[in-house]
Known about the structure:
The structure is a homodimer of 393-residue chains. By secondary structure, the first copy, chain A, is of the alpha/beta class.
Amino acid sequence: MQSFQPPERTLMGPGPSDVHPRVLAAMARPTIGHLDPAFQTFMEELKAGLRAAFKTENALTIPVSAPGSAGMETCFANLVEPGDTVVICQNGVFGGRMRENVTRAGGNAVMVEAEWGRSIDLDATEAALKDHPEAKILAFVHAETSTGVRADAAALCALARQHDCLSIMDTVTGLGGIPVDVDGWGADAVYSGTQKCLSAPPGLSPVTFSDRAVAVIKARAHPVQSWFLDLTLVMDYWDGAGGRSYHHTAPVNALYGLHEALLMLHEEGLDAAWARHAHMHTALKAGLEAMGLSLLVDAAHRLPQLNAVSVPDSVDEAAIRKFVLERYDLEIGAGLGTLAGKVWRLGLMGQSARPDRVIKCLAALEDALAHQQAPISRGKAIPAAQAALPDDS
Amino acid sequence: MQSFQPPERTLMGPGPSDVHPRVLAAMARPTIGHLDPAFQTFMEELKAGLRAAFKTENALTIPVSAPGSAGMETCFANLVEPGDTVVICQNGVFGGRMRENVTRAGGNAVMVEAEWGRSIDLDATEAALKDHPEAKILAFVHAETSTGVRADAAALCALARQHDCLSIMDTVTGLGGIPVDVDGWGADAVYSGTQKCLSAPPGLSPVTFSDRAVAVIKARAHPVQSWFLDLTLVMDYWDGAGGRSYHHTAPVNALYGLHEALLMLHEEGLDAAWARHAHMHTALKAGLEAMGLSLLVDAAHRLPQLNAVSVPDSVDEAAIRKFVLERYDLEIGAGLGTLAGKVWRLGLMGQSARPDRVIKCLAALEDALAHQQAPISRGKAIPAAQAALPDDS
């Protein structure tokens, strides 16, 4: 056993994304106590930074002390009671995970399904809500990391309100990369992750709850089945009014990292960050198409930060990932579930959404495909991407 | 909003403890993917380091991706099914939290209670097990952080086996500070934390499960109510056989820190680390008693790493904590629950169990108490502690 020296990777899979040295340096600052007065000021800043990123005034806006999957569970475990009906839109892995969460909380999941890589049909969703007037919640994935599909979050949140439902939105991969407007959309419970477009290390899950959702939690008939994730207890620690009461020990250094990542987002500006992700996507797409590759998701529903690229026939997709990792220290993602073996997932998230990363990724893919004698056009991808980069990027 | 620069504290409360610069530096190394081949080798080393610390050969020995409270919930949520009876020993805060966990998992909690600050009576525990032959689990806190009481873990684990129960042991504050012998004791499910005697930042919870416990989990009639903490899924990620399957994104950088902390423990040696904690306790106690202060817990059941000190009559205990924080940058802990206002909790955990910390703590306390004209002997504590330090420390 000796100290672990990780290789220097470029992270262009589905997350984690590249972490900026400022964020890494913040994580290495001295640990202080989770009840230290200095930490309490810090917590208020952190909540303000999260509210700005989510575009919300929600009082209950905090980082859950565990990765995004625990943020998902926080939303479902706190809002679903035994017997509740939840309409879930599924067009990838994470809608299926929502179903698991609902079932394990004793709820009834009503699924609205679409093919993986396609968007959720609003009419089908509305029909499900009409068929289930008892539904309490509509849940959907804003940015489906397994496929690269973007949902029409504004329309889905509006549908939920029209049918007197709360909305639960997964924007693990969305936050910081594409517009997220929690208050504008009227989303009720939203969770995200730190290791995608915020470019902090994995381990925390920012969540935000509308006052309407908080009222539902406070009026529960049954205790939340998880003590660790029970927001009626957690909020007493994060809500400074009347002094913070100990619940669990907050992950102090991980929170330092998230704070620095939010500060960097603030310095860049939300609009500029969204534009950067869009521009890098345009450049990557230009390069991929010039090479002869195609994207799985149609342009209208495509996430800029998660690009599912169809694997050409006869190409050994795992060998391509191994090649770019070994020769270029470049991580790209495999397909999940029904898309395993059929796509690569190229992430352009946070610090990985930079011109040098786009060019590196195209160069590495071209090299790897050429080694397999794949039918691609050589020498065209990088000029095409460079031509698509905005002048000020 | 600007970068957060934490004050430089000395952490001698109930945790977090001081984090060594080597561990902080490890946390700041570049993030790599949680499925990276290099990370898989690292994970095997991390599990080996945890097994050495726990003194176990248990295959299922991993860090849960969240703080100690989630480690507790991992044990209860995976082992308790609706209707199960669990005998819980409670003599502080954390036994009460165990009860919450059992109840929320649908189990029946049978409490064996002792006054806070006293040890659990073995005869009373045995009587409860005899009264409840249907009991499936005996749960207890090995190192009660709220009071500083050490349980007779070997005897309690043996009682569990005699009554055909699994044992669940909380050693959040124990691991690395006092002997923990999971295999020797035959403990079945054990959880700890990183921010106590391991001296890594808070955020992870090492757990270990005997093969007997794993068999019970695999034979469950009901799914684990938490998807995030469901070990039947989590173990597919941590068990390298057949490739790691994605469950949730592991907190990569926090794991770097834990790995480095385990390496430091390995370098020092378990026996030496336990001896260091014992010696620092002896020195601190000598100083406290020379000053005229007394410890809450009797010597036979006292944890060296968590010292509950009785607050003298007429002393404003909160003002003392404020004074040492502001003048000395020293964090000490308040009492919890029934001991609020009645004790301070002085931690000697991990990197905080060092001669300079013992002396600093005594100097700061003496200064603070003198400022309140408390009836203490001045000038005696530090020489007494120094006389009690071993020559080689």
